Amino acid sequence: MPNNKTVVSQEQIAHQYEYMQFIARMNEDKAQVRGQRPKAFTQTFGCQQNEADTQRIAGMLDEMGYEKTDRTEDADVIVINTCAVREHAESRALGNVGALSHLKKARPEVTICLCGCMVQQEHMPDKIKKSYPQVDLVFGTHALWRFPELLYRRLTGDKRVFDTSGDAAGYIAEGLPVLRDGGTKAWLSIMYGCNNFCTYCIVPYVRGRERSRAPEEIVHELEQLVADGYKDITLLGQNVNSYGKDLDEQIDFSDLLMRLNEVPGDFLLRFMTSHPKDASHKLFDTMAACDKVAKQLHLPFQSGSDTVLKRMNRGYTAEHYRELIAYARSKMPDITLSSDIIVGFPGETEEDFEKTRTLVAEVGFDMLYTFLYSKRSGTPAAEMPDDTTHAVKQARFERLLKTQDETVQARQNAYQGKRLRVLVDGTSKGTEYPLTARTEGGLLVCCAGDDLKIGEFADVVIEKTSLRCLFGRSV
């Protein structure tokens, strides 16, 4: 059933383009005086969705006449896009903002902007107002589409601008400019927000409820990406398996994959993140049937203990997760698997942890993203009793990494002598294998061969392996 999301009208988007034009004219005048265009610096913390959001911000800045720079000291506008999922990312972002106080004193005219998930938290605007006076503009995830208007207000007289309000149902804004970095890879958001309310996670509170983009908008953006030469395209959503539940049209994520697979061109489609409670046999059947959908699955299980999973409000059991993996492998024997794990969730016992370690050893993941639990204010888990010491959690963390490394090494060694299709995407520091590439399953390959070209698919034979990389030579 449709939710109460707000679809931003094209008239409202046009209004933002007017603000972009106002600022562009201001920047033209500055450029004539200086002899060069004003510059903008962007920095992103957090997930791929944050990176995609920054590309929208960069597109708007480009439309406003700003030239991109990698140096804060050269910038006229600085935008830091923040993350709230883990304390470490939040601390790094605030540390970088704190360091900008010296730049602000030396150049008071520079505009410092802070945005993203961190600032959408209820307590954060007051903290920024009191402790970070160098910050001129703060806008949350719900106000991203209004960035030109907010920046215009700051540039034309408002001392400090804060907008972290917004409807919890969330917004869908189509038609904003995007400035990507070029290369072979691109992010393509298919939905925003989350309805799951895992007890450790702040995302539903800062990104709003699940809301799906219209399928025709997604198809159109994919067609444009393919026309622009992108060949490794990742579909983004907090839980892509929930796609379509809020649309009037009867379409789910598997149906969307089938539709996107029909777009002409030589490219690969990946997606993240899937939630095990909503992953289905239909999804895996669809992946197996679609030649352009990469045989790669990122399916976070977080814990192998049903007791912990229940406290996390994850909505599945360890046995159900095993069944999903078994079915996916039955349909795609060569599928590459990755997952997320939280070690040290409140109340986790040694027995709970061993169940997690056992599941890791049984499944045999190709990649694993393991994190120590990070307490997030405002989530139910933050109030749960936790008497396990940090030292015990750290020891468990290291034991899990050892188990995973043993699994990965064996899986990597199995590629020795195999012929793999890869997409060459960059250069490496090595001289024997000077290029980097990715397999269909997302594995890193350092490769060599006179016929290899960045941005092109090629076949390589794996000559040697390591824990983190395969090494291949073109056929």
From TrEMBL:
It is found in: Cytoplasm. Residues 180-411 form the Radical SAM core domain. Residues 38-156 form the MTTase N-terminal domain. Gene3D superfamilies: Methylthiotransferase, N-terminal domain (3.40.50.12160), tm_1862 like domain (3.80.30.20). The keyword Transmembrane does not apply. InterPro entries: Elp3/MiaA/NifB-like_rSAM (IPR006638), Methylthiotransferase (IPR005839), Methylthiotransferase_CS (IPR020612), Methylthiotransferase_N (IPR013848), Methylthiotransferase_N_sf (IPR038135), MiaB_methiolase (IPR006463), rSAM (IPR007197), rSAM_horseshoe (IPR023404). GO terms for cellular component: cytosol. Signal peptide: none annotated. Monomer. NCBIfam families: miaB-methiolase, MiaB/RimO family radical SAM methylthiotransferase. This is tRNA-2-methylthio-N(6)-dimethylallyladenosine synthase. The lineage of its organism: Bacteria, Bacillati, Bacillota, Clostridia, Eubacteriales.
